[in-house]
Amino acid sequence: MEPRIQYAKTSDGVNIAFWTMGKGALPLVGLPYHLSDLRVASRIPEMRRALERMAQNRMLVHYDGRGRGLSERNVTAFNLDALVLDLAAVVDHLKLERFALLALLDGGPPAIAYAVAHPERVPRLVLWGSYARGADYWEQPQQKAFRAMREADWHTFSEAVARLVGEAELAPQIREGTSPEVYKAFMDATRAFDVTRLLQQVRCPTLVLYAPAMTTRDISSALASHIPGARLVVVEGGLDAVAEAIDEFLSEESDAPERQPASPAGLQTILFTDIEGSTAMTQRLGDAKAREVLREHERITREALKSHGGAEVKTMGDGFMASFGSAVRALECAVAIQRAFAERSRDVGAALAPPEGAASSAPTETIRVRIGLNAGEPIAEDDPDGRGDLFGTAVIRAARIATLAQGGEILVANVVRELAEGKGFLFGDRGEVALRGFDDPVRLFEVRWQGED
Fold first, then answer.
1. Among candidates 388, 366, 393, which has minimal Cα distance to 378?
2. Taking CA atoms, which of 53, 149, 223, 405 is between 20 and 30 Å from 265?
3. How many CB atoms sit inside 10 A of residue 132's CB?
4. Does the domain at residues 6-255 carry the CATH identifier 3.40.50.1820?
5. CATH of 268-447, one of 3.30.420.40, 3.10.129.10, 3.30.70.1230, 2.60.40.10
6. How distant is the alpha carbon of residue 184 from its chain centre?
7. Which of 98-107, 223-232, 406-415 has the least mean pLDDT?
């Protein structure tokens, strides 16, 4: 049974066709790309199967952009603001308060623009084969060749695109989905898109999917590297692999613990963690395997925070920021984290050298974590998503201290040592150290945690 086609009207008066499939807590809204058509999904089995998988645990929303598919055709303007209006019309019509965005190819720039303008509504962003600058994509040799073919013969162009994606039945759908004149106007508009300046303002976790058949590694890497905390994943193996990667990424939103509200004013101990050599690990293991290691790091750290009364402020991919009302509890948590990773490293050693004839399911990649702590009175504010965050000198100094630690070390400012005096911790004096951005040096101490007690 095909999804029911509905319509929403944009603020500039254009009727936009859309359908919904499935239901769940966090809807996923798919933006259209240049050849998008709502009727295609029901005619291509692999695409239909992938959409149904993504709709198993959530509402999936998909729409045709202005001038294409089942949406209003009598349109000639395709600037970035106009495409953002198409998205806004659909989500507002459905009264969606929070939703993830999935953008393929030229759907990326309007998705990024909307996510930056409405951070409170977009907790997750997926960019599949997309880009920040249209010229980067459309000036590729392959795309130049397709443009020349399209301008020479619309029929031949549609047949070539269909053969490229391995779906012969797609050719007539391309020709039905829009006119060559409208398609040209759309392509000319998207070639001028440039949201590079917005990338640093993206606040939500972002998944960048690199599809070799769609774009270049350089374009996807540049996109991911300019979005804070973005994750780059290579997807090969068709739409099923894409659907699996997207489903895993979106599932993390429901699995993540609730963020703590902004801590009240007053003395706080700030703790930062960071995985030593995380970039090299990702290059060595690949994105998928490295992500498995990062999930293990997140599990261990969150268990320690929960056991010792720490408030997770935020995670930065390969590290955490947390706050404690007690310096003693913060130090106990830091020691617990290091001991947990040390135990895990012993399991790794056992897995690499099991007894003869024995199999092992233990982890096979060590994780060495740097930890830094400082105490002070940070500024507590809510971020654009309405969740608590901490700012100020105390926070910056804690982050700087963490970068000076080696894997397996806990470094603390003298103020933390003084707050925990007489509580049984052993400290080694590391002397006064100049921290980047600070005029006065800070006296640092190493926490000796390797003992049994």
1. 393
2. 405
3. 22
4. yes
5. 3.30.70.1230
6. 32
7. 223-232
Give residue-wise pLDDT tens across range 316-339.
Answer: 767 888 998 889 999 999 999 999
Q: What is the mean pLDDT of residues 220-243?
A: 81
Q: What are the structure tokens assigned to 92, written together?
A: 């507002």
Structure tokens at 23: 């239901």
Q: In the prediction, which pLDDT does 377 show?
A: 86
E-strand stretches of 320-365: 320-324
CA distances from 386 to 331, 355, 391 (A): 29, 52, 15
Helix (H, G, I), strand (E, B) or coil at 42: coil
- What is 68-133 written as a DSSP string? STTS--------HHHHHHHHHHHHHHTT-SS-EEEEEGGGHHHHHHHHHH-TTT-S-EEEES--SB
Using one digit for the tens of pLDDT, what is the confidence trace for 265-292?
Answer: 478 899 999 888 888 888 888 877 888 7
With 0-12 CB in 10 A as exposed, 13-18 as middle and 19+ as buried, what is 73?
middle
What is the average pLDDT across 51-75?
86
Residue (of 110, 106, 104) closest to 89 by Cα position = 110
